[in-house]
Amino acid sequence: MKNIRNFCIIAHIDHGKSTLADRLLDFTGSVTDREKQDQLLDNMDLERERGITIKSHAIQMEYMHNGEQYILNLIDTPGHVDFSYEVSRSIAACEGALLIVDAAQSIQAQTISNLYLALENDLEIIPVLNKVDLPSANPEEVTDDIVDLLGCDPSEVIHASGKTGFGVENILSAIIERVPAPSGNPDEPLQALIFDSVYNPFRGVETYFRVINGKIRKGQNIKFIATGKTYFADEVGTLKLKQQPKQVINTGDVGYLITGIKEAKEVKVGDTITDAKEPTKNAIEGFENVKPMVFAGIYPVDTEDYEDLRASMEKLQLNDASLVFAPESSAALGFGFRCGFLGMLHLEIIQERLEREFDMTVITTVPNVSYHAFTNKNPDEIIIVNNPTDLPEPSTLNRVEEPYIKATIITKADFVGPVMSLCIEKRGVITNQTYLTPERVELSFDMPLAEIVFDFYDRLKTVSKGYASFDYSPIGMRASKLVRVDILLNAQQVDALSALIHADNAYTIGKKMCEKLKELIPRQQFDIPIQAAIGAKIISRETVKALRKDVTAKCYGGDISRKRKLLEKQKKGKKRMRQVGNVEIPQQAFMAVLKLN
Ligand code: GDP
Ligand code: MG
C-alpha cells in the first residue's frame, strides 16, 4: 500500500490532459510500440472527433523511483460539465491531482470548479504549467496566477510540455513524493468505490473501482449497497492498457470487476461494493442517482421505424446508464420517445449514435428542462413536466418551479460588462464578483438552468471574444412564471413545436419563432400561415408564400446531369423532413427555438 499512488488530472478542456496522460504512459513504459496511438485514453470514435473525454477510464503504471517500485493509478476524468458527477466520483477515488494549466490560456472556469472538488476531497494538488513550448506561452504570468490561486510556492509549479515530453519525469517524481499513499485498513470488511463503468457487449458491464478498506477477491460474493443487488465476482484485475486478471485487489488499489451484469444501469457510479456475507456498515459518502437535466422527444422520421427505434434505444441504454426514455405520442409526429439527457452534449451524442451505430433517421423535438407544476386542486402535489404538453391548463395552474444553477464564469476584466448583460438577459442574478488577478475576474450568478443549457455557452464565447469560461452546478428549484407557446401551421397546432418559455420572454420568442420557421419551412404549392399562440391568444403571425408556377417551370430544361444532381440532393434533404398535415417540416424547424439569436 505504501507504494501505491492514486491520482487524477484536472484541467480545462484543451489544456492538454489527454496528451500529457499519453506521455506519462510512454515514459513509464506502460505502452508497447505496437500499442502506441495518439491520445490513448480517448478511445471512443465520437470522443476522438470531438476532442473530449466522454467516459472516464483508469490505467495503472509501474515506475521505479529511488530504487523502489511504485504503482501509479491514473484515473481519467471527463472534461465536460454534462458529466460533472462522474468527475466528482473519480476525484473521490484519488489522493492527489495534477492541475494542468495551459501556459497560454491560464486558469479557466473548469480548472477552478474541478479544483474546488479536489480540495473538498483533500487531494494533494500538483500544479503543472503545460504547453511551455508554445511561442504564445506566458510562463511567468500564468505561474503567478497559479500561485495566487493555490497559495503555493512558485517552485512547486512544474513546467511541462505534453507535446515535447519536457517535465514529464518531474511530474512522476512529484506524484510519488507529494501525493500521500492510500490509508485504508486491509482487515476491515470490503468497501470499494465505483467511479466508472464500461459496457462490454461480450463480457457484460466492467465496473471500475477503488478499494478503500478490505480487499476484493476473484470468486467473492459481493454486494452493491445502493442497488442492494448481490453478485459473484467472476473476474477482478488491474487496468493496464489491457486488463490483467488477478486473484485479489488489495486496499488502496484500483481495479476492474466483471460479474456478468448485462445492463449499464445496474452499476451506479458512486455506489459502494462490499462483501455479501460480511458487509461494511458504511456506504461511501457522496452517492447520488444521476438525474437527466434536459428532455426532448425523439421520433422516427418514418413512422414505420418506431419498433426499430425502440430496439435501438434499448441497446443504447444498455451501455449508457444516464440515458432515460419512455414512450410518448405526438399528434403531429405519431409514436416516439421522451428522452432524458445529462445535457445538450449528451443529447447530440445520443442522436449521433442512433444515426451512426443504428442507422436510424430521427427527429428531435425542442428540448426543455424538467419543471415542477402545482395545480389549484392539489397545491402540494408535484407534477413533473418533462414535456410541454404536460403543463396543466393555465386556468388550473397554481404555480410552477424551475431548476436553478450556480454559474461560475471567469473572464478578462475588459469583458465584465458584456458578460453581465448576457447573464442578466438570461434571468441571472449576480451573487459574487472576485478579482483573481487584476486581469481576471470570477463572476457567480444564480440562473435558471433552462437559460443556459441551450445556446448560452456559444453566446458567452461571442460576447467575451473567447475570453470567458463557464461551469455550473445545480442549486435546486425556484418559482417561475412559465407559459407554453404553441405553434400553428396552416391553422393546425403542431404539438411537437410547442415550447415552455418564461412569461416575460414569451412574446418576443413567439415572434422570433414564427420568423425563424418562415425561413426554414420550404415553400409549397399553397400559402402556409405560421402562428404563435399562448392558449387561445395568437401572439404572432408570418406566412410562407406559395411557390409561383413559373419558378418551378424554370427548373426544367437546361443541363440534365446538373438537374439530376439537384434531384439527388433534394432527396437526401428530404430524409429529415416530416409531413405534418399537408406541410413538410424539416428537422431544423423542431430545434428552431434554440437558434433564435
Ligand atoms: P484535453 O482536452 O485537455 O485532453 O487536451 P488535449 O490533450 O486533447 O490537447 C488539446 C490540444 O492541445 C491538442 O491539439 C494537442 O495537440 C495540444 N497540446 C497538448 N499539449 C500540448 C503541449 O504541451 N504543447 C503544445 N504546443 N500543444 C499541446
Ligand atoms: Mg482529452
Automatic annotation (TrEMBL):
Superkingdom, taxonomy of origin: Bacteria
A Pfam family that the UniProt record links to this protein: GTP_EFTU_D2
EC number(s) on file: 3.6.5.n1
Keywords: Cell membrane, GTP-binding, Hydrolase, Membrane, Nucleotide-binding, Protein biosynthesis
Binding site for GTP: D14, H15, G16, K17, S18, T19, N130, K131, V132, D133
Reactions performed catalytically: GTP + H2O = GDP + phosphate + H(+)
Coiled coil: none
Residues of the Tr-type G domain: 2-183
Entry-linked NCBIfam families: lepA, small_GTP
Job of this protein: Required for accurate and efficient protein synthesis under certain stress conditions. May act as a fidelity factor of the translation reaction, by catalyzing a one-codon backward translocation of tRNAs on improperly translocated ribosomes. Back-translocation proceeds from a post-translocation (POST) complex to a pre-translocation (PRE) complex, thus giving elongation factor G a second chance to translocate the tRNAs correctly. Binds to ribosomes in a GTP-dependent manner.
Family: Belongs to the TRAFAC class translation factor GTPase superfamily. Classic translation factor GTPase family. LepA subfamily.
Name of the protein described by the UniProt record: Elongation factor 4
